[in-house]
Amino acid sequence: MSGIQDKVIAITGASTGIGEAAALLLAERGAKVVLGARRTERLDPVVERIRTAGGEALCARTDVRRREDVAGLVRLARERYGKLDVLINNAGSLATSPLDDLRVDDWEELIDTNIKGVLYGIAAALPVFREQGFGHFINTASTSAHRIVPGQAVYAGTKFAVRAISEGLRQEAGPRLRVTVISPGMTRTNFLEHVKNPELRARFEEVKDRLAIAPEAIARAMAFAIEQPADVDVGEVIVRPTAQD
Question: For the chain, what are the domain ranges?
């Protein structure tokens, strides 16, 4: 089935930023969206906006570091709608810092969210997709999975892992499942909440103010991948500001 109308799409990290933009856009185009995020106080208003506009949305508190939460989101979609067409593994952490800062807890947060969160999504949705005979994974990586800069070693490593896992999944998926990687560049989101190193934060703030693009640009890339015919798999889309190095 091509197009977006009536597809059931689950999205993690859907309360703000790219996930929120994707939820709003896909619902506007006729998808039934099932939204997960840790902060339900931010997630509930997204659902309300969609419903007020005439769209269809459900939500559940989802911490992608918890395997049972991700499984529950997929289960909610299937129980309510009888299927799951697309899982967007979007939730992520950008707790960047120089390695010398030794923020080991942040390293664990990055691994638990950015790598294990994606794997938990795959573990939850892959059996469903196999049983259905169709399905589409969209995994959010980053331009940092292509180009490493100081202060992002661990973050970039997790996003390299997302690309590697996604390519392995694509090769194993066979002819009926699709796998897409979306690699955003500098985007106007709340990612600075995770940056604790003051020098790195100041650098990011300057670049963000000067370069960052709207999260809707990333959402449109996701929609493009979803709306392709079933025999077309968009493997990866890099979306970054024109002026970004």
Answer: 8-239
Burial of 243 (0-12, 13-18, 19+ CB in 10 A): exposed
Tell me which residue of 96, 41, 92 sits closest to 208, measured CA to CA. 96
The span from the CA of 207 to the CA of 245, in Å, is: 11
Q: What is the dihedral of CA 72, 75, 81, 83, to 10 degrees?
A: 130
Residues 6+ apart with CB under 8 A from 140: 13, 18, 88, 89, 90, 92, 162, 181, 182, 183, 184, 218
CATH topology assigned to domain 8-239: Rossmann fold (3.40.50)
- Tell me how far apart the alpha carbons of residues 177 and 130 are, in angstroms, rounded to a whole number: 8
Active site residues: 155
Which pTM does this prediction carry?
Answer: 0.93
CA 227 to each of CA 166, 186, 207: distance values in angstroms, whole numbers, following the listed order: 19, 25, 32
Q: Which amino acid is at 150?
A: P
Distance (Å) of CA 125 to CA 106, 192, 209: 27, 30, 37
Which H or E run includes 70?
helix 67-81
Number of Cβ atoms within 10 Å of the Cβ of 125: 26
Sign of the four-CA dihedral 200, 203, 209, 211: negative
Alpha carbon distance 44, 19 (integer Å): 13
Q: What is the pLDDT of residues 154-208, one digit of tens each?
A: 999 999 999 999 999 999 999 999 999 999 998 987 766 777 777 777 776 777 6
